[in-house]
Design goal:
Largest sheet: 8 strands, mixed
Number of strands: 8
Number of helices: 5
Radius of gyration: 15 Å
Shape: globular
Order of helices and strands: EEHHHEEEHEHEE
Distance between the termini: 34 Å
Helix content: 25-40%
Structural class: alpha+beta
Strand content: 25-35%
Length: about 170
């Protein structure tokens, strides 16, 4: 069984937040965090079921990445980078457990995401979202994402597409 490896440790007030990479024993966290988020705001679409049922196959085996935000001994959040090309990645399946919201974990996830994208030689990162998620849209804008035409999306819930040039 693949074991998680700490990629980055961020010192927080009285706690440590670690960004760790995907391992098979963490797959259920990826599934559960994203499913909870989707069910709270939208519905789990067929593409979500495919992504969450076998994340290693859908993301990692195709050249992408999955990471987790670990606070103390608990998984607080997760996100994935889908490789579109050698220079373009999609930020996907970003979710923070409700009990950890308000601790700036989304900020740290985005900082790590952009740092990782740069390390990978990406020229841009894009994401699909929905404008009802005001705090998320605000966070993306804070980190330099700008709105671009949605074009086509596999997600029915998407009504906004944003990108960040690295």
């Amino acid at each position: 069984m693949q074991k998680a490896k700490c990629i980055m440790r961020i010192s927080m007030i009285m706690e440590d937040l670690q960004i760790i990479e995907y391992s098979d024993d963490l797959a259920h966290h990826f599934h559960d965090l994203n499913k909870a988020w989707l069910e709270k705001y939208f519905v789990v679409e067929p593409i979500d079921k495919e992504m969450l049922s076998d994340p290693k196959k859908f993301f990692i085996d195709k050249g992408g990445y999955i990471f987790f935000a670990k606070l103390g001994d608990e998984i607080a959040g997760t996100f994935a980078l889908i490789k579109e090309s050698d220079t373009v990645y999609e930020l996907s399946k970003m979710a923070v457990d409700e009990k950890f919201q308000g601790k700036k974990i989304g900020n740290y996830i985005l900082e790590f995401c952009l740092s990782k994208a740069k390390e990978l030689g990406a020229e841009k990162v894009f994401l699909f979202s929905n404008t009802i998620l005001g705090p998320a849209i605000h966070l993306y804008r804070k980190y330099g994402f700008v709105e671009i035409p949605v074009g086509s999306s596999e997600y029915k819930r998407s009504n906004i597409k944003m990108e960040r040039v690295i």
